[in-house]
Amino acid sequence: MKGIIFSIMGGIFITLQGVFNSRMSEDLGVWRTNALIHLIGFTLSIVVYSFIRDGRVSGLKEVPPFYLIGGLFGGLIVFGEMSAINELGVAFAVSVLLIAQLLCAFIIDSKGLFGAVKERVKKRHWIGIGIMILGVFIFKM
User: Fold this and answer.
1) 133 Cβ neighbours under 8 A, 6+ residues apart
2) Chain centroid to CA 76: how far?
3) Considering the entire predicted model, what is its pTM?
4) What are the transmembrane regions (predicted)?
5) Where are the domains of the chain?
6) How far is CA 70 from the centre of its chain?
7) Exposed e or buried b for every residue in 78-107, given b needs 16+ CB within 10 A?
8) Taking phi first (over 0 means left), then psi (-120 to 50 degrees means alpha), and beta for anything else, what does residue 29 get?
9) Helix (H, G, I), strand (E, B), or coil: what is residue 83?
10) Torsions phi, psi of 82, nearest 5?
């Protein structure tokens, strides 16, 4: 149940973040906004970490270097979401983003990439993805 609650919270916050960032980028520009929101996020992370202290610094040696590029994705995610919202509007942009995210997650699970447990692809998975894509087309009509 906690996972579902966190997923709902994440979905709400991602949408709100996209809207706020998109509006801010109208005054500051996309990359200045991107830098500023990541600086604010970094600051919050340091403050929270100073109280929670989860994990261990020595664990950084155990992280495969390839996974460190995850931080780069943050800048690209924010850029893509801001640009999409500016071009398409909030609901349509988020709909397309969710389908892209689901397809990427589906590929990762079905191939067992990046240490994910490999999931068997079933016909119902393809049907579900097809219905979502059809839903976005209907939504945009």
Assistant:
1) 99
2) 10
3) 0.78
4) 31-52, 64-82, 88-109, 121-139
5) 1-88, 90-141
6) 11
7) bbebbebbbeeeeeebbbebeeeeeeeebe
8) left
9) helix
10) -60, -45
